[in-house]
């Protein structure tokens, strides 16, 4: 039986552009809770639809993925300024080749060694924390996860470049996310500060690649070693820079945000923090967590999963239908922009009880959850290549911090997400550090 599409009312001339510009997250939640499961969107010059049924999302991302390609929306000049022409923005045979060239660095056998790096670098950071300090946790987590990506993927140390890289990325992200830019869709030239940040980022990445080659000669199994072994790239310097830039941006940003949101949620839900502390004390005692502890930290993992449900760094993505097709009983013409939203679906009351509540215990009994009611890392052939890396990293870093410190919010107002290329706190996140001996 066909399902009739429905959508929120639209502006006579601008369609749904004002909704996407003024409150895109609220608009997506309205679509998920009051309309759908397929919401036709009125956008200038493009036919678009928002999919909210996990079955339909699976068809687009998995079972019929060959008929759906990356849209121009995800390959605009604004996106490419940050991510280059790497794994995230490429498509077709170029993407398949890049995926093969990067895959070796994410083999499961390498995770235990990576895990040692996670906890060693976390320990160095935490040794500098003091009881009663107020710290920008987002900045700390961004610096830490950037150091981890550089160490594991390049085999060198980020050093002072970590802060410079983060600052450049923040500048690019801020310009990309300005309301008048419409997430890079509006054909507006880049600002001078944005161009300068891109050039600086490129120089920093090239310097890291040179340092990595001088230090380790690619003896260890790293992403850079895999890319260096690839042949047939006429501009090798640019190819290496674009791929490494992609992994620096996507790899450290998502983990830093996941941890930042987790600490904010824990501060607002002390009962969850108490149960987390009990698990860490039972499993770890006074020692540093390690890779072999992961199976014994199910509640720590549940906190990460619940954080990713509520605040997925990848909050919306899209594909373009290559040919005419049928989705959920609706005819979808070729060329249609098909959008999916982790933010909207993962907060839908159709799939989660009390969907806006932070309740890690829900993951103890979600056996009948539709496959794509929860998809923070995407799905299908283009699922995040570093998914296992990111989950292990987030669990071990959360455990490393929480066994030594409790973090408290310094402001009473609710921390609301800001929809940029990722889902961020609008102005960092300042928290007060309390050592466990004083807790």
Keyword list:
439 residues; alpha+beta; Cytochrome p450; three-stranded antiparallel beta sheet
Number of strands: 12
Strand proportion: 5-15%
Strand order of the largest sheet: 1-2-8-5-3
Mean pLDDT score, rounded?
A: 88
CATH class descriptor name? Mainly Alpha
**CATH fold descriptor:** Cytochrome p450
In the CATH classification, which architecture applies?
A: Orthogonal Bundle
Total individual domains: 1
Write structural notes for this entry:
The chain is of the alpha+beta class and 439 residues long. The protein has one domain (17-438): Cytochrome p450. Helix content is 48%, strand content 11%. The chain contains 14 helices and twelve strands. The protein has helices at residues 17-34, 54-63, 77-83, 92-103, 111-126, 137-154, 161-176, 192-216, 223-229, 236-268, 270-283, 298-310, 342-345, 387-402, and strands at residues 38-43, 46-51, 68-69, 134-136, 317-321, 325-327, 330-332, 337-340, 405-409, 418-419, 423-424, 430-435. The strands form four sheets. A five-stranded mixed β-sheet has the order 1-2-8-5-3. A three-stranded antiparallel β-sheet has the order 4-12-9. A hairpin with a 3-residue loop joins strand 10 (418-419) and strand 11. Helix 5 (111-126) packs parallel to helix 14 (387-402). 43% of the residues are buried. The model has no long low-confidence stretch (mean pLDDT 88).
Give a brief description.
Helix content is 48%, strand content 11%. The chain is α+β, with helices and mostly antiparallel strands and 439 residues long.
């Amino acid at each position: 039986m066909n399902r009739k599409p429905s959508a929120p009312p639209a502006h006579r001339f601008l369609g749904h552009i004002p909704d996407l510009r003024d409150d895109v997250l609220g608009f997506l939640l309205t679509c998920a809770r009051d309309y759908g499961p397929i919401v036709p969107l009125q956008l200038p010059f493009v036919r678009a639809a928002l999919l909210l049924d996990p079955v339909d999302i699976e068809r687009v991302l998995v079972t019929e993925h060959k008929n759906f390609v990356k849209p121009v929306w995800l390959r605009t000049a604004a996106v490419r300024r940050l991510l280059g022409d790497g794994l995230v923005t490429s498509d077709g045979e170029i993407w398949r080749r890049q995926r093969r060239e990067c895959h070796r660095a994410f083999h499961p056998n390498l995770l235990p060694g990576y895990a040692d790096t996670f906890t060693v670098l976390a320990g160095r950071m935490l040794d500098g924390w003091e009881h009663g300090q107020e710290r920008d946790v987002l900045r700390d987590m961004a610096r830490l996860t950037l150091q981890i990506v550089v160490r594991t993927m390049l085999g060198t140390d980020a050093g002072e470049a970590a802060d410079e890289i983060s600052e450049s990325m923040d500048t690019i992200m801020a310009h990309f996310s300005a309301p008048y830019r419409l997430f890079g869709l509006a054909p507006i030239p880049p600002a001078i500060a944005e161009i300068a940040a891109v050039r600086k980022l490129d120089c920093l990445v090239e310097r890291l690649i040179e340092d990595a080659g001088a230090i380790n000669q690619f003896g260890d199994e790293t992403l850079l070693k895999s890319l260096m072994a690839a042949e047939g790239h006429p501009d090798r310097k640019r190819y290496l820079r674009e791929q490494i830039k992609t992994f620096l941006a996507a790899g450290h940003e998502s983990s830093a945000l996941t941890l930042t949101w987790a600490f904010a949620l824990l501060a607002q839900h002390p009962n969850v923090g108490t149960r987390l502390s009990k698990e860490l004390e039972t499993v770890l005692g006074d020692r540093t967590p390690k890779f072999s502890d992961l199976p014994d930290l199910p509640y720590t993992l549940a906190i990460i999963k619940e954080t990713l449900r509520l605040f997925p760094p990848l909050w919306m993505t899209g594909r373009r239908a290559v040919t005419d097709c049928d989705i959920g009983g609706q005819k979808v013409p070729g060329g249609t922009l098909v959008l999916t939203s982790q933010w909207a679906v993962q907060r839908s009351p159709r799939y989660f009880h009390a969907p806006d509540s932070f309740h890690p215990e829900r993951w103890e009994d979600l056996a009948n959850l539709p496959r794509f009611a929860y998809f923070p890392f995407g799905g299908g052939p283009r699922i995040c290549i570093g998914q296992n890396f990111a989950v292990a990293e987030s669990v071990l870093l959360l455990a490393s911090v929480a066994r030594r410190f409790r973090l408290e919010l310094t402001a009473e107002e609710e921390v609301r997400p800001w929809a940029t290329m990722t889902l961020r706190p609008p102005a960092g996140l300042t928290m007060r550090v309390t050592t466990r001996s004083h807790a």
